Every structure is written in C-alpha cells, then in structure tokens.
Amino acid sequence: MIKYALACDGGHAFEGWFGASSDFDDQAARGLLECPVCSSHAVSKQIMAPAVAGTKAQKTAQEPGPAATRAMMMQAIGQIRRHVEENFDYVGDSFAREARAIHEGKSEERGIYGEASPSEVKALVEDGVPVAALPPEPPKKTEVN
Questions:
Q1: How many structural domains is the chain composed of?
Q2: pTM of the prediction?
C-alpha cells in the first residue's frame, strides 16, 4: 500500500491509500478521485517525505528504558508529595471529619492532608467528597538496591 498526500483545486488537503503507484494515475484519469470536503474531482498529489523504516534518525528518538521511566516517575511522585506537604494543612487522623466539613461548607475551604481508614475514605467517596491518596514518600537513595 502507498499513502499519498492529496489536495483538490479548492485547497483541501487529505490523504489517499493506493495498492500501487500507478493506481493513483489510473483512478484520477477515470475521474474516480474525489475531495471528501467539497467533492471536487480535480485532485493532485502533494510533495511529501517518504517514510523509510529502520533509519538511524528514527533510532535516536527512542523512548526511555524502564529504569529511566521509573526514575522520572519517582521524581514526579516526590514533587507532588513535597507540594502537598508545603502548601496544604496537615490535619492528622481528623482528615475524614475535616474533609467532610470543608465539603459541606462548615469549615474553611483549603487543601488538607492527613490519615484516614479505608472505611472512612470509602464513605467520603460515596458521599461525593473529593479525596485522593497522597503518593508515598519515595525511598531514600540509600534504601534502594
């Protein structure tokens, strides 16, 4: 299959797939090509770069490996946790009670964090109170093997 960038005389760009390079010329000569936007039959091929598999240029843009991905994730988790600890109020084991009070307008609107049991979290979620688990503290470099 060959993919061509195409355009009509109205300036609409689109692409077309053909079984062989001669199929475009054959279909164009028989008036079978049509712009999907304006239905014009005056369709022509546009200049496009060929897609060549296995070039060195494509290999330079590889995705990071598992170790690099894990390191990036741990860094992001650490940043999220630090942001919460630096900008939110720590309410300890009163988290469920305080989150519900904020949600109901009985307490000042602010970001909080603290501890809650699984049953308390479940009840908050069921009642529509927005809560999310705080990412765990990333392990210290001395604790990772």
A1: 2
A2: 0.51
